[in-house]
Amino acid sequence: xxxxxxxxxxxxxxxxxxxxxxxxxxxxxxxxxxxxxxxxxxxxxxxxxxxxxxxxxxxxxxxxxxxxxxxxxxxxxxxxxxxxxxxxxxxxxxxxxxxxxxxxxxxxxxxxxxxxxxxxxxxxxxxxxxxxxxxxxxxxxxxxxxxxxxxxxxxxxxxxxxxxxxxxxxxxxxxxxxxxxxxxxxxxxxxxxxxxxxxxxxxxxxxxxxxxxxxxxxxxxxxxxxxxxxxxxxxxxxxxxxxxxxxxxxxxxxxxxxxxxxxxxxxxxxxxxxxxxxxxxxxxxxxxxxxxxxxxxxxxxxxxxxxxxxxxxxxxxxxxxxxxxxxxxxxxxxxxxxxxxxxxxxxxxxxxxxxx
Amino acid sequence: xxxxxxxxxxxxxxxxxxxxxxxxxxxxxxxxxxxxxxxxxxxxxxxxxxxxxxxxxxxxxxxxxxxxxxxxxxxxxxxxxxxxxxxxxxxxxxxxxxxxxxxxxxxxxxxxxxxxxxxxxxxxxxxxxxxxxxxxxxxxxxxxxxxxxxxxxxxxxxxxxxxxxxxxxxxxxxxxxxxxxxxxxxxxxxxxxxxxxxxxxxxxxxxxxxxxxxxxxxxxxxxxxxxxxxxxxxxxxxxxxxxxxxxxxxxxxxxxxxxxxxxxxxxxxxxxxxxxxxxxxxxxxxxxxxxxxxxxxxxxxxxxxxxxxxxxxxxxxxxxxxxxxxxxxxxxxxxxxxxxxxxxxxxxxxxxxxxx
Amino acid sequence: xxxxxxxxxxxxxxxxxxxxxxxxxxxxxxxxxxxxxxxxxxxxxxxxxxxxxxxxxxxxxxxxxxxxxxxxxxxxxxxxxxxxxxxxxxxxxxxxxxxxxxxxxxxxxxxxxxxxxxxxxxxxxxxxxxxxxxxxxxxxxxxxxxxxxxxxxxxxxxxxxxxxxxxxxxxxxxxxxxxxxxxxxxxxxxxxxxxxxxxxxxxxxxxxxxxxxxxxxxxxxxxxxxxxxxxxxxxxxxxxxxxxxxxxxxxxxxxxxxxxxxxxxxxxxxxxxxxxxxxxxxxxxxxxxxxxxxxxxxxxxxxxxxxxxxxxxxxxxxxxxxxxxxxxxxxxxxxxxxxxxxxxxxxxxxxxxxxx
Amino acid sequence: xxxxxxxxxxxxxxxxxxxxxxxxxxxxxxxxxxxxxxxxxxxxxxxxxxxxxxxxxxxxxxxxxxxxxxxxxxxxxxxxxxxxxxxxxxxxxxxxxxxxxxxxxxxxxxxxxxxxxxxxxxxxxxxxxxxxxxxxxxxxxxxxxxxxxxxxxxxxxxxxxxxxxxxxxxxxxxxxxxxxxxxxxxxxxxxxxxxxxxxxxxxxxxxxxxxxxxxxxxxxxxxxxxxxxxxxxxxxxxxxxxxxxxxxxxxxxxxxxxxxxxxxxxxxxxxxxxxxxxxxxxxxxxxxxxxxxxxxxxxxxxxxxxxxxxxxxxxxxxxxxxxxxxxxxxxxxxxxxxxxxxxxxxxxxxxxxxxx
Lengths: 356, 356, 356, 356
Fold this sequence. Notes:
Helix content of chain A is 24%, strand content 22%.
């Protein structure tokens, strides 16, 4: 297990889907940052289940408590421990999954790796683990805000339906978190349709960081791009990540792909930002643009082929309260991941030079 | 700077494009592995410049020397230091780049981050740094071979031309390292055409690991997928990474995307392996399949807009000995990266359980 | 802040003396280890306050709860989160310490480093933080027990009174945890005398590991000795650590100091074990022997010179419920630290070689 | 193996006593620091063999080359690779040690851990490895100098003869590096006497950091004290470390041991600095004072009992060119270790707070 992420600003998540509680310890938070539990809860509510007709009706409130590291509403430099108690876990529904592996889930691989596993609701492999990422992301956002950075994300595509316009203001006003209100309606219809068909949809989340300072990213192996790669692909259900033009850039010619350096007053600007805000693994000052592929929810109420722990063939229908598409709820999680990467890099960058 | 990668099996690369030498220190190599410099050189020769008409004519031999950690052709457990001396660096060609930033390169971002930089040939940001990755990859391949794993890579697409057939045996028989000999010819033509037009091409590299044991990968943040994401996007010129069906899986429905568990004798097999060999961040036992987007070479002999360190607008033509497409030489580098990820995970997995 | 210790078996402690709770997250625990909360509580009760007339009467029960990583009383490989709630914290006694620094405590240095601090009961710098170390130590002990290792500690010296005999069985039978029952009585008298005089005593704790396998320790920087040095000196109130003969060995000649290699049947034995069980940073197979200097409790009810945050001179008397000597309660903490070091090294050693 | 030390400022040493070369890679060095090879060589010459009649006559020049990370005599932020070639290694003298273990050395433990080892001159376990620590220490000293800190060390005691006076200026003027010129003469006589008797002497090195800023040290596990413990005990031949009054403080009462806070103008001063410059693991601003116990040289030309790899009893006399006391040459090594610890903490401390 490696339950920690980050070098200076470092989070450690713990907890299982159906255990008594989940949480995160955030180490390396600078002292002096104002912080209240209400601020943390705000983002957690965006990740929460049961928000709308396109998400699972599981009833967790996901209420956060701050157990350490904050005194009189200001961070002290000590590790911040955040916890939420599982209240609506209904493990009885999972009894039949003790011996059998759900397709698309980690049941089989955990069993092969660890031998002994908590099968209830996916145990440690459940996306409930992302609670701690979003909670920690709020603190990360404050650190990067101190460097001027602003992070947000949206559903760029669900079930093949893509946003054709972009309006940041509409994102949190529709239940799929699309940036295009027309596409949003189509996405909602598609999700409800899939749900009715006992099927599920995937999609693409786009995450952006605005007002970036140049200079963030630690070559060679902790390049901004590399840490984004690790961060995004550590989130359940993700299958790909691209930066800037990404895979499309692989089909460009150098003369198209290269962003020229231009001057806007005394500001250096970088062409059309094909690069997505990074050159040589270091931020350019242009917006960071990341897209992440999210697969369709693995839990579907359809009969599928599987095997048991005793290696007998079996049929399985995965009942339960599942999101027909996890994309809308993945938006705040992936947004938090970019914030976590950038917060660590903002702090690391304080050591980049010495004025002699 | 973060010049190290890996947790137990950990490499640290050093060196600049035009400095006296480049190298890598590989720590955490288990004792007892037979190792000769000839084995290391073999993969380095695949990465070497000047191999063919589609690569740069720069004349580095890239000869490796083993300076430590190996005694009587067997590893001792001590760190292995490998070095190569730069012999054909011609820094005079870079004198005009001291004050000006090449589009698509890291010149600008290094300057913004570090203030002081070695501009010759890109300095630390040069792809010459990947020498050490390939050298270390040879040792990684021996570690994973001890677990049965076999890693290889090929050019899946260059300049929009994709392999339509797959034959592993042809990969190293054509100078672009395609798995389809017909596509290979077209790719070569496209590269030479681009070269004549003083332009460059990008493409897609596919990397696979065969004979995978199940159980490799360390949730939550060092998932097999996450480490692949970091590893691949730490390589210069990469813009995206996907696993299994990747971005295409975002457009599937759950009923298509889910791989059923099947039995092949007493072996569990996993459907069509849409997942690309990983579930919940842990290897399933099926082939690991990764694709990486590589952008077109940034150095082109065309006039482009740029700025100087004094923030004056300037025109630049990047002369020099450059690959018109880096894809063929990226193949052994990205292959090495997967080997590095897996070697570390093979060793980490030794701590996954205790038989009580 | 760096609240984590260990590389594979890695603990992260969090919590303040007077916050709502304290805890520890233990990552990298192999799956398959039987574990109950009762086992953990047993060692915690040895560290607990209010055990006897020589310890503080603060009334914390220190009851542990397991929040994750254990399913049906067996570890799953997932991070184990342990928590205890502060029940008997009386912060009102600390109101006068908001503006003033207690001599011998971390009040001043936290204020200089972090600016903002939780002053109540020492906040993060309180020895209450060691709760998590002892709790995690129980799991560490199980891991090392699987390699045959047995760890224990005792008060070798308190207030200048040293054990002259050694009987492991008496250690937990006297309230100071001495290995010599006669010395124990004198130590108790000395502590009570110091308490009456509103003063405090220090001492020396000896920690041993028996039935050591040879081969534990990771040269060059994670030598067994080096990790012991870090582990022990990370515990509050420690001022020195020595291994084997330690400082006395600095006054020996080589001909006395060198342990000869001897044969006992087919077992290699190592002289008088002056080395304390380690050569070149790797365990020899002989007992590991460590001694740690513990300073007298800093909190004393005597008038002392200090300054305020506004840099005014001030007199201070530190009232409160304090141990007149922390040595007896440091015994289980330092014992846990050796277990933590060894557990990580046992797991790391699984990667020392490959049989080719 | 764990050949790296430090979190942000991180060194990785490699190389064996009789291999072709030894070196160190220093990662995380801020850009902008002036640096020449001559500066590095100056400290290396203090560590070098063959300096005087009390050190081994082995003739290594230990000449350093800078291979990367420095451009036009200024650091670039890229990893700095330093190398020295072994020129005077005479491996023939070690042929008889292939099958037999030298008492007091790591021969036996390396063999038990790794199976396969380079026995020549101790291989990886040789104190020649410390070359890289001293070389890296020069860069560390520049980083801490930028924060005002000044580090030095001296032989406080050799063969039981202790310095009774302290004069920093005399340290580098006598061949044992004592701070008391009278004691120095006695130490030299004692060493020569021991040499004549084919025996060896140990001693105590004291290391100090002056002009310390308050605030350095990262609780909980990377306390200044803890990192000093790890750093010092990672050096070959060390057996103990103490800070401030150390073991003597264990025999004090709280009323003696506690340093009062005093005012010197608007400067806070801390009593007699019994604490040795650290409270709660964070620097107080007073001098950091560390003492390290160094054992007598293990290689002595006297007959000693040992065993062979085949577990036969054997007699051994360790011929060769050895220091009769390693203390004088340990002085620059242990001084470098304190510089390495502090350099990392100076950089880490840049993340301690955010001004909101």
